[in-house]
Amino acid sequence: MLIATYSLAQDASQRPEEVIRAFYKAVYSGDRAAFERLTVPDPRRGKFISEGSRNETALRELMDDPTSLQIKQKRPFMNRGLAIDAPANGTFPTGTTALYMTAHRRGPTMLSLSRQPDGWKVDLRWLLAMIEMATPSASDPEKGTAYSAARGLTASLVALDRIRALRFIVPGANLDVLFAGAPRYREPSGHLDAIALEMPIVEINPGEFYAMPSGRIVEGVQRNDMKVLVGLFGTVELPFVVRRFGSEWRVEPEPYLPLINQ
């Protein structure tokens, strides 16, 4: 794991860890103005915070003991799909991303951060996807979509089910690529199955880049026959290139299993 170093001259408010602390403080205090300054703009972000709603107990605990908020970087800083070191002057290029596991008063929460022109911001898309997944619905909004193909393939890989995996990959794909690095036996507890079911998945946009498990770099697109998705499988990002074949979406094979089982 890359360990970031920062210039002492860098404004502390622009360090990812300090932005995360300020984000928690804004949520606990119901400070919507601060919340919006600290997050990447998204028309849905009002679902995450209500103006004036305060959690006095959590806020007091955070203020009295800042170290009670656990923050752990889960992957290197990435720019255009490549890992980068922290610059000597502490100012990262716009578009750099980071992923942190955080915890305060409850189980872990994964936060994705993006370096914007005016500093680091929390990217809420995966958190919002989790909220939307938890919203009761009379039907399955993912059914027949690129998202369901990515989720179905992940569940098939967790189960080491080669036959089922064929339903979700592009026609003629090589299963040996998909199952490279597979363990001899599936994980027996059902824990990975639950993670696959609950995995928030987001479509990335042009100008956003991710490294696939094979090492190739992909960029988000705006096409009717192709999508680039990124799922958050526990603490690991799983990128998918998904293509439309007639009425079905199918995933390009990649060696996902070493990531899933790490």
What would you note in describing this structure?
The chain has 262 residues and is α+β, with helices and mostly antiparallel strands. It folds into two domains: 12-132, Nuclear Transport Factor 2, Chain: A; 137-260, no CATH class. The chain has helices at residues 16-29, 32-37, 56-64, 125-134, 146-158, 162-165, 175-178, 191-198, 257-260, and strands at residues 70-73, 77-79, 82-84, 97-103, 109-116, 119-123, 201-203, 209-211, 217-219, 226-233, 236-245, 248-251. It has a four-stranded antiparallel beta sheet with strand order 1-4-5-6. The chain has a four-stranded antiparallel beta sheet with strand order 7-10-11-12. A hairpin with a 2-residue loop joins strand 11 and strand 12 (248-251). The chain is globular, with a radius of gyration of 19 Å. The chain starts with 15 loop residues before the first helix and ends with a helix.
